[in-house]
Amino acid sequence: MTQQPQAGLPSATVLDLWEQGVNRHPLDRALLLLQYACPEESFESLCDWSVGARDARLLALRRATFGDRIESYAECPDCRSGLEFDLSCEGLLGSAATSSSIWPPWSRAVALGNCADPPAVTSPMLPPYRIWKRRAASSFRAACAVGRRCWTSRNGRTSCRKP
């Protein structure tokens, strides 16, 4: 792998890449961006990158193109309350683990190695994602409570009860 991209994408290039990727699978869109950002890498080499390395490079490219701030929105599936929040590319990059050495060899996450096999990459959830999802749900429950929503738990399942 080469160094992280230093310059962002010009707006004409963003539009061109969007037009090329509009009808493609999300993994193919990611590879399209990486091919532009890393012209010295072959397509096969890009396919061999780990998911973490690929996503870290894409996040760095996004940061260089649009800035560090990511405006985000999540909606409670039960009460439909919305929560707007900002994420930092730098913060996400700093907390990302791109090394597969942290996984035990029997972990299902190791099988997800790269994007050469899209169904294998998208089928099971990675353990860190489950942890993040729990933390995000916890934060969202707190936000709903502030919004006068009450969270209840039945049989390990959490739901939003309107006042």
Mind explaining what this structure looks like?
- There is one protein chain.
- Helices cover 47% and strands 15% of the residues.
- The protein is of the alpha+beta class and 163 residues long.
- The chain has one domain.
- A two-stranded antiparallel ribbon has the order 1-2.
- Helix 1 runs antiparallel to helix 2 and helix 2 packs across helix 4.
- The protein is globular and about 45 Å long.
- It starts with 10 loop residues before the first helix and ends with a strand.
Offer a concise description of the structure.
The protein has seven helices and four strands, in the order H-H-H-H-E-E-H-H-H-E-E.
How are the SSEs ordered, and which strands pair?
Blueprint: H1 11-21, H2 26-37, H3 43-48, H4 51-66, E1 69-75, E2 82-88, H5 89-95, H6 118-122, H7 127-146, E3 150-154, E4 157-161
Antiparallel strand pairs: 1-2, 3-4
Helix pairs in contact: 1-2, 2-4, 4-5
- Which structural class do you get from the secondary structure elements? alpha+beta
Mean pLDDT: 71
Helix content: 40-55%
Shape: globular
> Over the alpha carbons, how many angstroms does the gyration radius reach?
19 Å
| Unreliable stretches covering 5 or more consecutive residues | 101-113, 121-131, 145-153
For this entry, give a set of tags.
alpha+beta, 7 helices, single chain, 163 residues, 4 strands, two-stranded antiparallel sheet
